[in-house]
Amino acid sequence: MNTKKEAPVRKDVREAKFSEFRGKDKVKLLSPQQKRVYSLLCSGGQYSTIDLMRELRIADPRRVIANLRAVGVKVLDCWCVSSKKARYKRYFIQK
Question: Taking the model in full, what pTM does it have?
Answer without folding.
Answer: 0.71
